[in-house]
Amino acid sequence: MDLIIVESPTKARTIQRFLGKNAKVMATKGHIRDLPKSRLGVDIDTFEPEYINIRGKAPLINELKAEAKKADRVFIATDNDREGEAIAWHMAYLLNEEDEENRIEFNEITKNSIKEAIKHPRKIDINLVNAQQARRVLDRVVGYNLSPVLWKKVKSKLSAGRVQSVALMLICDREEEIRNFIPQEYWTIEAVFKEGDGKIVFDLKQILEDGKFKAIEINTKLQADNILKELKSGKFIVTENKETKRSKKPFPPFTTSLLQQAANRVLGFKSGRTMQIAQGLYEGKKVGAGGEVGLITYMRTDSYRLSEEAISSAQSFIKSNYGEEYYEGPKHYHNKKKGTQDAHEAIRPTDVNRTPESIRQYLSDEEYKLYKLIWNRFIATQMADAKILKKSIELTNGIYRFKSQAEVILFDGYMKATGIESGFNDIDFSAFKKGLEVNPNKLNANQNFTKPPARFSEASLIKTLEEEGIGRPSTYAPTITTLINRLYIKVKEKLLVPTELGEIVNNILKENFPSVINVKFTAGMEDMLDEVSEGKEDWKKALRDFYKDFKVDLDKAEASIKEVELVDEVSDVKCEHCGRMMVYKNSKFGRFLACPGFPECKNTKSIEDRIGIKCPKCNKGEVIKKRSKRGRIFFGCNQYPECDFASFDEPTKEKCPSCGGVLTRKNYSKYWQYKCLNCEYEEKRDKE
Q1: What is the CA 629 to chain-centroid distance, rounded?
Q2: CA angle 181, 184, 189 (to 5 degrees)
Q3: Of 287, 427, 272, nearest to 354 (Cα)?
Q4: What burial letters (b/e) apply to 4-33, b meaning 16+ CB within 10 Å?
Q5: Cα–Cα distance for residue pair 15/291, rounded to 1 Å
Q6: Taking the CA atoms of the chain, what radius of gyration do you get in angstroms?
Q7: Residue 413 contacts residue 352 (beta carbons within 8 Å)
Q8: Is the peptide bond before 599 cis (omega within 30 degrees of 0)?
């Protein structure tokens, strides 16, 4: 009998069902050996790590050893990335099988993939292991040296990390830009033509100077008024009316980063939640009578590559379900970004015939939404380009040029799978024939002010981290989660905002560790890790070189940084236990009130976030916004436990047009979903 060792119990159950009695599949339940938590665990002279068995894993390790002795063959099938390779290496060390060809890997958890992998075992890739060791040791050295500085100078239990601190710096720098932003006035001018029931708007874009048209800038009302006078005395002539056809290609398949961005932008999922759901879809779900099966390929990848088998199955599906015209031939995508690991495929469904609707009943609402997002994206990658007709019209009045344009979809192509994208609108420009004089119904001059840069959302921060080469796909979600849990940032209206504590920590790190807390260094470290994974760099030498400069900054910082006193904001609420005025405190679930007499007085209170609506159940209390133990926002009565009203949808002051009951609403990216608490009435309302 074969013993197959994986990381996850769910994954183990799925594979066990495929292999039956011929194999025993066991899970390590994550890492089994690691650096000790109580000390640095790294020899700074040699950079040799000190690994120990993780506390509580001894019974499992003994069981794995016992089963390995009984097995005819042992295969280690941990995840096929650097982290998984390192876990395999640690497992092989414990089983005394370090030099054996016992490592197998697969990109999807299907019967054929597992059986094919068993036919082709290999030795553990020590270069990948060393890249993981280098990252682990580097992060340990940085974290275990920076964090104590913050404990001494700010407050206990703070932490600093290599990638985490640079992500915090980006968020704080953006906040500083917003804070220092000075709006600049500018004006726009438009010519409005009424055609039928609608209107066609032309925007003033260019001015003729030195025989050439160039972009116009209007900075004051006086300038705008003078231009309006010139336009009114002049004539509007149609100088261009052209139509051009173009093709719009589908987006590439999902990488980890692109999936996290899309799930955040389209579904409102936090990056950590996206990876949690994706992990479950990869490891296996019970769909129908067949039992558990992996629904998507491995979800930690930065490759656009798709297998020929997957492309072929997509071809058959598209022709059968959409029609021959929706298939133009196989499409291949290549990620040209430096450092891309092409060993794994992009994220895709394991079986394209397993459509989202066909398995919806077996998935939770979140699982269905994410699976549908992945399925749609994959099938679209192999569909025909969309055909677009672009209409461009230009009007000239003296030295001023106005433009208007529209884009119309002639053939939806891949959008048949993903849905029609925004920005397409058909405008009838037939009245604007070239050379014709036209007269607008109205000329408008509009005052505008420049806007500050937007705060980061999770999606835009992940995009920036990836573009700058900071971290890797697997680190984005835990990085953001750590910043939130450490109270360095908070999420406000789905945007990331630094807290006072976060800004203090960021300032200390930026000022005292400029060689480490900067984008260029962090991206350079990722390049170094890539070199190690390819066997081109000695990881211990690279770490020794880094530590020389880091130690200089560390010694200077410990001598020069002054202590920072954090003062809690005092509320107007008196502690009913001891009479002190309570202060505001923060946790990862939001603000709350606490007695400043801690630890003598441990009284705390939640802050009621009232929405101004009477409880629809008891009609005595008020509805307040709350957070569940998992941090999810819901609405409940402030008279709990006397009244147990609770709803994830926000109650409104509106009455149901059907029965007069209370309407609730749920926020989606483009619309509000209204539902009645008493009957089945519901409606969608466009946000615009």
Answers
A1: 22
A2: 145
A3: 287
A4: bbbbbebbbbbbbbbbeeebbbbbbeebbb
A5: 11
A6: 30
A7: no
A8: yes
List C-alpha distances in Å: 253 to 289, 306, 332, 415.
30, 8, 10, 14
Task: Please work out, in degrees rounded to the nearest 5, the angle formed at the alpha carbon of residue 662 by the alpha carbons of 658 and 666.
Answer: 100
Retrieve residue 196's tokens: 């039928």
Amino acid occupying residue 218: I
Quote the CA–CA distance of 128 and 130 in Å, as a whole number: 5
Dihedral sign from CA coordinates of 540, 544, 547, 549: negative
Beta strands of 321-399 (E only): which ranges? Answer: 386-397
Give the separation between CA 442 and CA 228, rounded to whole angstroms.
11
Q: How far apart are CA 75 and CA 104, in angstroms?
A: 6
The whole-angstrom separation of Cα 147 and Cα 138 is: 14
Q: What does pLDDT average to in each consecutive run of 10 residues of the chain (688 residues)?
A: 92 89 92 94 94 95 95 93 93 92 91 92 95 94 90 85 94 97 97 86 96 96 97 96 96 95 94 94 86 90 92 96 95 73 81 95 95 97 97 97 96 94 89 95 96 96 93 89 91 92 92 87 90 94 91 87 80 89 79 88 83 88 82 85 90 91 85 90 83
Cα 491 to Cα 1, 273, 408, 588, 610: the distances in Å are 51, 15, 38, 10, 19
Neighbouring C-beta atoms of residue 383, cutoff 10 Å: 23
Q: pTM above 0.85? A: no
CB neighbour list of residue 590: distance below 8 Å, 6 or more residues apart: 607, 627
Paired strand residues for 266: none
Residue with tokens 């990390």: 161
Q: How far is CA 567 from CA 230, 276, 476, 501, 585, in A?
A: 60, 37, 32, 11, 10
Cβ burial of 601 (10 Å; 0-12, 13-18, 19+) is middle
Question: Of 127, 197, 141, which Cα lies nearest the Cα of 532?
Answer: 127
Q: What value, to the nearest 5°, has the Cα angle with vertex 416 and ends 411 and 422?
A: 80
- At position 423, the amino acid (one-letter code) is G
User: Which residues belong to the active site?
Assistant: 298
Please name which of 622, 602, 621, 620 lies closest in space to residue 612, comparing C-alpha atoms. Answer: 622
Q: What is the DSSP string of 58-119?
A: HHHHHHHHHHHHH-SEEEE---SSHHHHHHHHHHHHHTT-TTSS-B---SS-SHHHHHHHHH
- Please, what is the angle between helix 500-512 and helix 162-180, to 10°? 110
DSSP at 47: T
Please give the structure tokens belonging to residue 320.
Answer: 């059968």
Q: How far apart are CA 124 and CA 114, in angstroms?
A: 18
Q: What is the DSSP string of 208-274?
A: EETTEEEE----SHHHHHHHHHHHHHS-EEEEEEEEEEEEEPPPPPB-HHHHHHHIIIII---HHHH
Q: What is the spatial distance between Cα 262 and Cα 443, in angstroms, rounded to a whole number?
A: 40
Element containing residue 673 per DSSP (H, E): strand 671-676
590 near 615, Cβ under 8 Å? no
